[in-house]
Every structure is written in C-alpha cells, then in structure tokens.
Design a protein that fits this description.
Layout: E1 4-6, E2 11-13, H1 24-29
Antiparallel strand pairs: 1-2
Amino acid sequence: MKSRYKSPTMSFRYSLVDIRTLNGERFLASAEVGDQDCGDSRSR
C-alpha cells in the first residue's frame, strides 16, 4: 500500500501504526475528547 497520494492540486502522506503499540495513558490524560475515544464502547 502506498503511503502517499499526490495530484496536481494536493499532496497527502500518512504512516500506519499498530494501535496496540501506543501508550494509552497519554491519550487518557489528553484534554481532547477524540484522543480518549480509543476503547471498545461495549466495555463502558
């Protein structure tokens, strides 16, 4: 899978990350609501 899209008017790059390797404490401490919505909603 390519990690870049380029057109005459736009360029977009991204990196794929395995979410299991991220430190969840950092997201929970964030004031941004979107950072805290990483869990399984069935467990709430």
